[in-house]
Amino acid sequence: MQHFYESELEDIRRKLVLMGEKCMDISRLALKSLEDNDLSIAQRVLGMDDEIDELELQIDAEAVRYLSLRAPVATDVRMLTICMKGCHDLERVGDEASSIAKRVRRLARQGRPIGDLAGIPQMTDMVVELLRKSIDCFVNEDYDLALSLPELDRKVDDLNRANFDMLMSRSADDGNYVSIGVELIFISKSLERIGDHAVNLGEEVAYLIKAKDIRHSDLVRRAPERQ
């Protein structure tokens, strides 16, 4: 019977890892739909978001069922709590990627060349790397890796601010560029939020490993707000 309980826990863990992998894929696809101006890829992103939503529902339901029926020990309770909170963060990653795909559709309707994408491709690489590391620290219960995520996230935040300045400047110089610039600013912001959700998952994994809440501590202090 104990083996059966462990199998149930492992299935929940496996679903969270699967969500993380899908979040990396959907982030890459959202960028590709922008780079290629490809509405069929944007539509695939929207479909993948539905799959991520379904996984969140499954994890929540299975975790609640386990908590209700199995009288788990403290470490298992922490793991289930992290899975429930982590799947919410990953579901939001899917939402942000879906938002990017919808903005790609708006840009396509304008029928004008988008031109240079500022630092958006580089940002996408960085947030995918953040997602990969957040899942790795969950799988390997790597506390040090979890603590390293905010530093990479600060670089994402810096790039988002640089994108904002560049795109605002282009819009100021060319009134015809404003509608494109606004969409790209929001896409950059969506990527910045994906980075935040990856760091949130790392903080939750740190709690799983050490039973210590490091949120808002100096260990993971986020970048200061823009002045």
Describe the structure.
82% of the residues lie in helices and 0% in strands. It has 6 helices and no strands. It has helices at residues 2-35, 39-69, 74-110, 120-140, 143-173, 178-210. The longest helix has 37 residues, at 74-110. The chain is elongated. The N and C termini lie far apart (58 Å). The model has no long low-confidence stretch (mean pLDDT 91).
Sequence-ordered SSE layout with sheet pairings:
Layout: H1 2-35, H2 39-69, H3 74-110, H4 120-140, H5 143-173, H6 178-210
List the defining traits of the structure above.
single chain; mainly alpha; about 0% strand; 6 helices; about 230 residues
Coarse structural class = mainly alpha
> Could you give the order of the helices and strands?
HHHHHH
Assign an overall shape: elongated
**Contiguous runs where pLDDT drops below 50 for at least 5 residues:** none
What is the arithmetic mean of pLDDT?
A: 91
Could you write a compact summary of the structure shown?
The chain has helices at 2-35, 39-69, 74-110, 120-140, 143-173, 178-210. It is mainly α and 227 residues long.
